[in-house]
Amino acid sequence: ALPTAQAFLALGLNQVVHRLPICRLPDWIRESPIPAWETWDAVELRKREFERALDALCHLQPTGTKVEGGFALQDELTRAWRADTREPPGYYYDFDTTKVRYYGTTLPYAEKGHASDRSIRTVVGFGLVTSRVHHHPVQCRPIVGSRNDMISVDETVARMEAAGLRGVTLVMDRGMVSAANLKVVRKAGYHQVGMVRDGTEGWWEALGRWT
């Protein structure tokens, strides 16, 4: 069986190069120079090797408890790049969400929601936080397709707090700016930069009181 770390490497390279479906990965790996570079035995490579790697990141236990190993991996990778980067700690972080169409049948995050073209489709949401200067990934997580962007902020802030990020300024678009979200951001000791909706009542007055 292909070790989990090697399967992760193959999945990552696939996302960078081709974004092939998992069922086509074994043939792609065998035809590539990767087995020679990494001394892999790819003759008996099957789709299940990559599915096991994904299950290691996120799966349900028999009790129904969700294991989110991917979050622990993200936190460790973030600590690693922060240890070597010249980017100041506690700098600006970009936070955004997007929805992509889902064509399968079994993903629990897939629900009816607004796709990127504003149509109603079966979609899966993703929330991404990156550092402002070098765009290092800080957090990426799935979001239920029916979930509004506005209510994704509290979970994101909680995850960043749990990862030990301090003194952060979050840059958000207008779809996530609200009084309730600003309160969540400030309670965490963070700051927020964001657009406001055109014509919102009282926004000119608020800008006039900027300090």
TrEMBL record:
Name the UniProt record assigns to this protein: Transposase
Protein source organism: mine drainage metagenome
Taxonomic lineage from the root: unclassified sequences, metagenomes, ecological metagenomes
